[in-house]
Write a structure and sequence with these properties.
With 175 residues, this protein is mainly beta. The chain has three helices and ten strands, in the order H-E-E-E-E-E-E-H-E-E-E-E-H. It has one domain (7-174). Strands 1, 2, 3, 4, 5, 6, 7, 8, 9 and 10 form a ten-stranded mixed sheet that branches. The protein starts with 6 loop residues before the first helix and ends with a helix. This is DUF1833 domain-containing protein.
């Protein structure tokens, strides 16, 4: 039996019966409970969080696209939730009505699930993306689409410009 400790093990060493269950948790301080959704298990699942707490994720049609990989520490997900306008819009109205400028927080978790035994191959998530915030959102009568991103990490300039104003020796090179 192959042990699955992380997402790499799932892709490189797992058996064909191991499936990736992707979950999403969206929370806000004004909401009574977070939205917890699993994308590919029609009955919903009870799963253990990384904290050891067991919670229920309900099924909803969900498409999760990872953003581009870059070297600037930023992570992003593009998420389309087929909620038919029933789940997210009322909660967003609640935020807007309170004139609150806090963004909803998003946590992505992936679990290894053994479809042959219908049990988790590992109790806790094998991949977690935390610290994501809903930044842009659009919706129609079929779905809500939003981008969840980390706050920009590389927007603050550090140091000083490499110019003759600061480094007088450069003036000789420019002449």
């Amino acid at each position: 039996m192959v042990t699955i400790d992380d997402i790499t093990d799932l892709h490189l060493d797992s058996s064909p019966s191991i499936a990736l269950l992707e979950t999403l948790e969206v929370s806000h301080s004004l909401w009574p409970i977070p939205i917890r959704i699993v994308t590919n298990h029609a009955d919903g699942i009870e799963a253990m969080l990384e904290t050891g707490e067991t919670v229920y994720f309900e099924f909803a049609p969900l498409l999760i696209n990872n953003g581009t990989t870059s070297d600037d520490l930023d992570q992003s997900l593009n998420i389309t939730l087929g909620d038919l306008g029933e789940i997210v819009p009322p909660l967003i109205k609640q935020i807007r009505a309170s004139d609150n400028d806090e963004y909803p927080q998003v946590i992505y978790r992936a679990y290894a699930f053994d479809t042959s035994s219908m049990t988790f191959a590992k109790d806790k998530p094998i991949d977690i993306k935390k610290g994501l915030f809903v930044e842009q959102m659009s919706r129609d009568h079929q779905a809500t689409t939003f981008d969840a991103k980390t706050p920009d990490k590389n927007t603050v300039k550090t140091g000083r410009p490499y110019s003759p104003d600061y480094y007088t020796d450069l003036k000789g090179l420019l002449a």
